[in-house]
Design brief:
single chain, 464 residues, globular
Length: 464
């Protein structure tokens, strides 16, 4: 008799592992490259400008394409777009590791950003499909966000170990086995989302969105070296404002827009986007500024710098799991507000940190920020999943992650312009940089309190 092979049952937990692996290597690459820059410059004999674009090419592509990637996930299915993004990212990582010159490395980093943009919105949509039950979904989102936050914070340490032991190409080549495993797990266990093939592609909207976000990202990235009042930066900001205004006009008149403006009638989407922007503004800016502070003011090595971040990153996963439990029991408003308040307290505490401060005095503000961000991030993702129609999850996730990415880019630009070794005492610069972080965090906290009228209970609110 002929035996029929029964396809293995899909596992939601393995689908969670697949999406987490994708998010982990994407977040890891945000920070892991920073500790390898000196070795890359020596190994490839490239100048400082090219070295800056090794970092910035990834950020530019990632931030510019998130909205379009979310729309593609809604139209073609989240699993298909996630796998495509994971494959592009993995292949680009290998190309980075094999690069023999600046041009190939920068182009490969650009392609990494393209792959990352395709992965992030679709990964959240896949989580929503794999965990339809609200309480299980809240906990899954907390684990997904926790592993990513842990990777983001552990980047300097992981990068330091890999570079010291195996050389700079290792920080890219390590992505290959992770990518292969993640793609296989996705195909085997992640359920696909409904494809809305009838939806037309809004080419005008996508083009304008890419130009707007690219101009904004470029201007903010260049502000660190050129200054905010330079012609280049001001031109980039003006271009972003102008094309952004045209984008809104085009989307308002389009029958099937890339970004349905009706999405912003949803309070949960608005508050989540504002909160995400503020969280990344402070967190990314802090990571950048503290890396300079540790290495230039305290004269730590790259590996010691990574270890200095360890207290903050060690509690991230625990705090994310706690956030999932709190969200499942009390709704998303409580962890969102409490996390933002705790992060604001951490930023304020930076004004008491000096180069001679004890390890504990430095660690406590970092712990407050790490726990606060880790509590808030899962709740903003859960709020979007809970209140957005499934047909728009991809683009809603794209909006949320675009807001977060813009916040991160602006945060690094602002902190970088205030904490510069050649211009000022790093401790004093850190104290000044803490002020906008506190203001932005408290403004977001006010938005949460006033903008979310209910607790965000997963039992009573539903997916309205």
């Amino acid at each position: 008799m002929r035996r029929h092979l029964v396809p293995p049952a899909r596992s939601s937990n393995l689908a969670l592992l697949a999406t987490s692996l994708g998010f982990v290597i994407i977040c890891l690459d945000v920070t892991v490259v920073n500790v390898a820059l000196a070795r890359i410059r020596e190994g490839l004999a490239i100048d400082s400008t090219a070295l800056e674009w090794v970092v910035n090419a990834y950020t530019l592509a990632f931030a510019s394409l998130l909205l379009s990637a979310g729309a593609l996930a809604d139209r073609f299915g989240a699993r298909r777009v996630f796998v495509a993004g994971f494959a592009v990212f993995t292949c680009a990582s290998v190309a980075c590791g094999l690069s023999g010159g600046a041009t190939m490395l920068i182009v490969s980093r650009l392609l990494q950003g393209v792959g990352a943009a395709l992965c992030v919105p679709s990964s959240l949509a896949l989580l929503g499909a794999a965990f339809p039950e609200p309480h299980a979904r809240a906990k899954a989102v907390s684990i997904w966000a926790g592993t990513a936050a842990l990777a983001l914070g552990a980047g300097p340490l992981v990068g330091g170990v890999l570079v010291d032991c195996f050389g700079w190409p290792a920080i890219f080549l390590i992505n290959m086995p992770i990518g292969i495993a993640g793609i296989w797990l996705t195909l085997a266990h992640a359920p696909d989302t409904v494809r809305h093939a009838a939806r037309r592609i809004d080419l005008a909207g996508q083009t304008l969105a890419i130009i707007t976000l690219a101009a904004l990202t470029y201007a903010v990235v260049e502000s660190g070296t050129r200054g905010w009042t330079s012609v280049t930066v001001m031109t980039g900001l003006a271009a972003a404002v102008a094309t952004g205004a045209v984008f809104v006009t085009v989307e308002a008149r389009h029958t099937q827009p890339l970004l349905p403006l009706t999405l912003f009638r949803n309070a949960a989407v608005n508050v989540s986007a504002i909160t995400g922007l503020s969280l990344n503004f402070g967190y990314y800016g802090l990571m950048f500024a503290m890396s300079l502070f540790f290495q230039n003011a305290r004269h730590d090595t790259p590996l010691e710098t990574g270890l200095a971040f360890l207290p903050m990153t060690a509690v991230v996963t625990v705090a994310n799991i706690a956030s999932g439990t709190l969200t499942a029991r009390f709704g998303y408003r409580l962890p969102m507000a409490f996390g933002q308040a705790l992060a604001a307290l951490g930023y304020f505490s930076l004004v008491f940190v000096h180069a001679q401060s004890s390890a504990l005095a430095v660690a406590l503000p970092l712990l407050a920020v790490g726990v606060g961000v880790a509590l808030a991030v899962p709740s903003i993702n859960t709020a979007v999943l809970t209140h957005v129609d499934p047909s728009c999850i991809g683009i809603a996730s794209g909006v949320l992650n675009t807001a977060r990415q813009i916040g991160g880019v602006v945060g690094v630009g602002v902190f970088g312009s205030l904490v510069r070794p050649e211009l000022n005492d790093l401790a004093e610069g850190l104290h000044v940089a803490a002020i906008p972080a506190v203001v932005v965090s408290l403004s977001s906290l006010l938005t949460i309190v006033l903008g979310l009228k209910t607790s965000g209970s997963l039992v009573t609110d539903g997916a309205g």
